[in-house]
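Morning run. Coffee first, then this:
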Amino acid sequence: MPAPVPRQRAIPAAEGGQGPVAAPNESAQESPENRTAAPEAAAPPAAATAATATTTPAQLTLLLIENDPGGTPIVPDLLDQAGRPIRIRTARNLTEAERLLTDDVHCILLDLALPAPGRADDGDELAVLRHVLELAPRHAVLALTGADDTERGAEAVRVGAQDYLVRDELDGRLLSRAIRYAVERKRSDSAERRLAEGRLRAQENRRLERGLLPTPLLDGSPLRFAARYRPGRSRALLGGDFYDVVRTPDGTVHAMIGDVCGHGPDEAALGVELRIAWRALTLAGLCGDQLLGTLQQVLEHERPDDEIFATLCTVDIAPDGRRAGLCLAGHPSPLLARPGMPARLLPYDNNGPALGLLPGARWPRMQVELGAEWSLMLYTDGLIEGRVGDIGERLGQDGMVEMIRRRLAEGLSGEELLRTAVNEVRDLNGSELTDDVAVLLLDRTR
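And here it is:
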């Protein structure tokens, strides 16, 4: 959409017919006597003006563009909905109209018989209207035509005018009503367009965010994968939490879950960058302390603020599925469940600092025995920081472990287990969780 032409100055209230309503023969070429004949009334007190502004719409201003304004039977008693005179400005051509088209003009009454400047006669009967619509995209436009040219008036509406009027049928009441309707219709159309544009942007953002969620690379692995993701940001699909799972050519399955501090789009973008970097580094053969040290360098270069940090949990599961290496960078320890044994948290004594906190930090890799059949759940702190009960205590890791034990005893597993757990945490909180929640589950069965 073309941008409106910049205005060089505001038009004084009396110039071009503002202030008292102009006589029918008033135009942009007014005499000095006409411009000074009607002094403005004394301004009301500031308090009264403020009160009026909050309850009464702005007084309407009409710009009439016609080569013979005096030939149009516009009566001087045009009134807006509040019964106030509609201010009129007149211009004999589009050059004058451009000078008078300031931001306080609400509606344009355009004679379709006017020639469009700078355009050859190419047979376009609505060239002047198209020019005005380009010149004033935010203004309501009424097309003025003759009684024998109503088809062109109807076509003008299809092109973009709010309505058309027949010159010989004009009177003050009809024109006043048409101006009010045109202004409201333009406002409604603009609001609908902004709403449609907002919906389109939201759809594009949702598609983008959905595309940024990972697709696990587990081809050839006997492990089963499930994940649940709930961003804390209102109407978002992606938050600062991130996760990923890949299988390298040697048969090792690598899983990761992390959390960038904060909940905004910048944190979500940083989480995506860290996830993609983790996948690339893992496929390149890095793991453990070397991988986390490189990820910290990525974080330090990409974060928008030096205060930003990220917690991370990485697990590499041996090809036989019985053992795993675990690295924790300020992140909660995973939960391990095995048949015939209560679910428990893996050791976290060697938990290293979060990424981005300490230059030159180290992250020890712990060896964990998994067994022949197991379920391993990685999660972010959004799952354990919800409130419970009237006193508002945190659920905590102990509460989460008990909840998972109950659900496993009920026979839940996979997607159903994660969905039920996240919904229960939300219900215990009494409302939607404010923090991002990501949960990842890997299962190995005989």
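Residues 2 and 134 are 6 Å apart (CA to CA). Good start to the day.
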